[in-house]
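Notes continue from the previous slide.

Worked example: a multi-chain complex. Inputs as given:
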Amino acid sequence: MDTNRLSKSIEAALNAQMTKEAHASQIYLSYAAWADSQGFGGIANFLFRHAQEERNHMMKILEYILKRGAEVQVTAIPAPASNPVSINNCFEKILEHEIDNTKAIYKVVKMSLEEEDWATWNFMQWFVKEQIEEETLAMNLLDKAKIAGGENMSGDARYVLDKDLEKTPDKASSAEDATTANP
Ligand code: OFO
């Protein structure tokens, strides 16, 4: 009896998304190492934490594939993009990456809808919500960089921004949780 509860196309799409999450982790890891090498320990700390979060996303998909009786395929992870050239550029690259990841997640959602695989559709809703947070987080980073002077950030502004990021939680608040008392 075939106990695989995923279609071949969904199985392949989920494996690809699992690798994409691993790739995201490598991107954050390499940007974190870049930030540290530039002396931005606070930004590096933030990005190292986020690299770990992307690993958790990868594990979530891996677990789901296994739970559905399908086959996990751990493949090579593409190399991360080239290093940023500035803090502003680093946060721009992060936002671009997150938007790209959202598009990939939407493709899996669409596929599960078309195949009426409601289990996968339901599973993927966690990622849809997570991507709202992830994009918000990246936009918040970019806002901070812009306020600090964007590409023309002074040394003082870089210092303050780096200190600020050291304490910043790597979760953004979601619009769905907002109330009039706590907008
Ligand atoms: Fe940056 O988010 Fe994973 O999915």
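Summary box: The mean pLDDT is 95. The helical segments are 8-37, 41-67, 87-114, 118-147, 155-167.
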